[in-house]
Design goal:
heterodimer, A: mainly alpha, three-stranded antiparallel beta sheet, two-stranded antiparallel sheet, B: 325 residues, mainly alpha, MetI-like fold
Chain lengths: 500, 325
Amino acid sequence: MSKKFWFSPLLLVIGMSTLLAVLPGMLGVKPVVLWTDRFIYLLVVAVIFLIAYIRHKPHLRQPWRHVLNNRQAMVAAVILCAYVAVGLLDSIHYRQPLQGEKAHNGEKLYSVEVFSALDALLSHLRERVEKTYSAPFAYRLYSMETMIASDGSQYRAYPRLKYGAAHLQDPASQRGRDILFKTLLGAGQGLIIFAVSVLLLLAYLARSQALSFKQAWRQCWRAESASALRIVLYTLAVLMVLSSVVWKLSFFYHVFGTDKVGQDVLYLALKSIRTGLVIGTLTTMIMLPFAILLGIMAGYFRGWVDDLIQYIYTTLSSVPSILLIAAAVLSIQVYMTNHPELFESVRDQADLKLLALCVVLGITSWTGLCRLLRGETLKLREMDYIQAATAFGVGRFTIIVRHLLPNVLHIVLIMVVLDFSGLVLAEAVLSYIGIGVDPSTISWGNMINGARLELAREPIVWWSLVAAFVFMFTLVLAANLFSDAVRDAFDPHLNMRDKT
Amino acid sequence: MLAYIVRRLLYAIPILIGVNLLTFSLFFLVNSPDDMARMHLGMKRVTPEAIVKWKQERGYDKPLMYNANISGLGAFTDTIFFEKSVSLFAFNFGSADDGRDIGFDISQRMWPSLAIAVPVFIVGILVNITFAMLLAFFRATYIDIWGVVLCVVLMSISALFYIIGGQFLIGKLLHLVPISGYDTGLSAVKFLILPVIIGIIGGIGAGSRWYRTIFLEEINRDYVRTARAKGLSELAVLFRHVLKNAMIPILTGAVVVIPALFMGSLLLESFFGIPGLGSYTIDAIRNQDFAIVRAMVFLGSVLYIFGLILTDISYTLVDPRIRLD
């Protein structure tokens, strides 16, 4: 390991940004960077440097090793990584050039629609829009239509779907066998991809530890120390086979059906991932600097600073959070409708509204962390090493940055991880109440909100709801399991009582 | 004790002033009353006369903080700030956009809210403590481990799912109770039972896990070891010693929400069509009725601060060592 921990992550970041800068030009599209994208990129860079820093410091590495050896946590981490990958793909936006049209001065014109890399990947899902509802794997529309027979008479029947199962001649009899065949094919492909990636991993292990390939294989599957790695590989295998099957089937069927305007529900559920992740991560990222700074200042300076900060957070926390969010979001809504000139496009406005929601959620949720940090700092400032630093004449600012901040960071980390799942769940509830994300933003909350009234129909339209709940549940469960492991590893005795 | 309560009440005043200023700036400084009027009347083709009329009807046609046209005390009292924000301190909530008196509506809608919130609160706590006790009794066995996993799974399910799933299963498939609605008197029970059950189930995951950690913290203390050494059975130890000593943390979490029960549950009431304060708030948010939202924010903070004082008083009841003075 090199002495300077920031060197290799810096290379990585530079490489990634050049890739992002060069690639759109090569593909002939115009890159678009939304506001939330900027924060996400910033977050990614921060996480990369943080990981490098943690690897560099033995005392920080130790608790993470506990997490890495926790099997539940590793399963959760793999699933979280899959979600994050989808979310990141969905955060690279661009506009496509309009074909054949040129502006007067010969410049290329670009379409107004903003797509993401995920959209490009899932274009077969996005473009194949049916007329209205259709059940998962259906070949007929949900509702009857009047059709004209060849002899001119009219009759009512369920029309065939335009895209779902369109490749079959006689879907009623062929469909079952076709689905089974495609599933097996997809599973086979998934297994092959998994096998190749395992081989690559083994080759890497063998190289880096100077083992023969056979030894690396044995170490990977037998060694006690590699049990967490094996769990990761099993999870990856399941994940790869599953996604490969869904991927294969999604070309021929609507795996989760279609919604009211005929959009593929699988596509909507995947697009919602980014919204959920943005709310879960950006919220804490925005509130973090304030909470840390104010919390430490209140605890360290005492006196009137303490009184003032305590007053601020007591006032904020005494308003029921949902009402405070409602009040803030309502006034932001009024502001945005009265100032349409601030936004370039509808997409831009929806994006800024998402960011505003994160800020509002951050304002309501920083008080808990601030209170915890104040308490911890009060305790720390009486410790011998702080006293010694003060006696040596170390400045107050230096004491805060060098001695207090590193010693409260574990609390920050635990709170950030704990808050994540609650925020993802909150998004759905807020969107239902009408103070969540913009109605044009694809999110689980909006999916649920749009679908809940359809349960009264006969036969019931259940697939949108189920898809949204399943995707949300998986993310939240993984986040909860992971955060438990992080909490146990960093501070089993930390009293979270003040949180509620 | 009395002196303490009076002092706490006095402490509450600056906080309530802060809340008041916060809501005032959110609703009147970020957006002028003109903006609100335009939003309500529809964005396009709004005549200035319509805006003036809208503001007049709601009393928004006054200066914000200081009325230069009137001399003396009137310069401060004849303003939006005084009429809309300061009057909240007298629990004078004004009228909603449809002209109804908010204070009267709140006093009417409080009771259905309580009819749901109180049973959910009491039965919920009992269920959670029982389940947590069970897990603590079987601690470090498979029952405990899988119980905690179950709690995490329950916690990870969206509240919306519990409500929609419950309505669908019990109300639509099994036809046991009506899906939504409300009635007065005893016949309200059949409308209330499903939301109450769903409210309790929705809280089991987080609640039980929380109580379990409290119990496990107590279980390693010296007095528990002494109690076991005396030969007490494990059940007696748990109920007679651990539960009693865990009362302080339990009260910390529980008492503070008691006054807030008046506010009802937003989701349950709105899904089940119960005319309580929760659905009142949601309707206000959807109709962008700022007067109601302002009133509820203020009421919510008052109740929360009241809950904090109640918590402190309740400590003295369960732990005679604590004195408030």
